[in-house]
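Support case: user asked for a sample of complex input and structure output to validate their parser. Sending the pair below.
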Amino acid sequence: MNKDDIKLSASSVNLWFGNKQVLKNINVSFPKNQITALIGPSGCGKSTLLRCFNRMHDLSPDARIEGKFLLEQQDLYENDLSVTQVRSRIGMVFQKANPFPKSIYENINYGLKINDVPKEKRQSIIENALKESYIWEEVKDEMQKPATRLSGGQQQRLCIARAVSLRPEVILMDEPCSALDPLSTLKIEELIVKLKKDYTIIIVTHNMQQAQRVADKTVFMYLGEIIEEGDTKTLFSDPKNDLTANYVKGHFG
Amino acid sequence: MQLRARERIDHSVKLLVKTTGFLVIAILGGIFFMLLWNTAAFFLKIKPMDFITGTQWNPSGNPATYGILPLLVSTCLVTLGAMVIAIPLGIGTASFLSEYAGKRLKNILKPIIEMLAAVPSVAIGFLGIVILGPGIAQLTGQPNGLNALNGAILLAVMALPTIITVAEDALHGVPHMYKEASYAVGASKWKTLIYVTIPAAAPGILAAVMLGVGRAIGETMTVLMATGNASAFPKGFFNSVRTITATIAIEMGEVPYQTTHYYSLFAIAAVLFLITLAVNLLGEHYVNKFRKYHSA
């Protein structure tokens, strides 16, 4: 892979929660404008790794991180870099749709307000973000409705719109479809694929079909280590490692 | 045989708890009826307009006057003052405990704050007379410090444990995913607290405030001791005031049975009852209004 094509990378990463080591010597890179899937059984550390990139572990006092995280040339854990800057460049979508208990409008407006986007620009940004996330047609007439009244799939698309509205470079998705029905899942997957032309996307998923449907690259993790990574098609059809082979064939996990 | 014995026990237990349940309702109804009955007796003798708009409370004067306004204003003044002090302090402390304090500090602080609620109100009133009163007198150059401000501060202290405990529970109960969502768009801890956590906990915080108001309005002994009990119309926080509760407590023991004066105390008690009822209904209304954002 050409060095210029790498958007995000982690090298020699170790992470502990208290005394328990959760990530072991992780070296991985994520290509620009592509979708990378992180797969592996529960507890293998894929969500933990994902959350390192937007520094969500800053909030857990017992987490200890070693290693280097780069967004292009920017060290994400540099001392004088504020976590706010990191998070405005790296957005996140969570496992369970988590719109704020506020109106649909306010859900997107909040992030803009926090990041000091001038008021007069917000309306068009909000509209665009909702259009980009294919939820505009469904909510345009009821922007003041509580977001919690939307269906699960709509809520998740709203959360994607919230992330997209800040024009991040990378979007991290932590099992975004695990709580959704197949139809809503399909819609979100279509959306994810469409978003790839503007964003670099990393998606954690338990669903191997989903990884194959959306991801260009797939990384397989097991017990805190990266076992194998590569082009999605190759990894699924011709895994080099026995563990990978057993996992992708559904023998365990 | 065994089965029948079991059924009999089951049945009698059911009857027992049913009785206790109805007993509570009966007691409440009884109190309400007693207030209403005696209030009606009062209004047979005194015109309601004189009661509501009268600016003097002097039942032993000649002629006797039964204007509730000075008492009502006193109660509102003291309660308002208490809330102005207790609400920001309470929410601030609750936020600190819930969001900033470490586990160990929280485990030390919470029981101490709850212990504050266990201090008898008469002891707090004592504090008002001995420490706060002279202090206020000295600071403001008044002859004595037994006034509305003194009562307000003491009531704030008394309402704080309730407000802090309930508000902290509410803040703590805000799902972690809301906070994460806020952090993920780049919000700081402080902004998350102000814009996400506190609004999401609003029903609980409102309930906390309402409980605090209820505590402050109904409190008798502390205000009786600390506010001076002058029945003149209060002009401000540095005036001596006499609340509805204190008036009832002071006068009930001395009033001749079934006189107009006697009935008048029931009338002001009924007003107090209506106020607390209104506070509770208002609180309930807001709780429901905020709740609609939470129901999925």
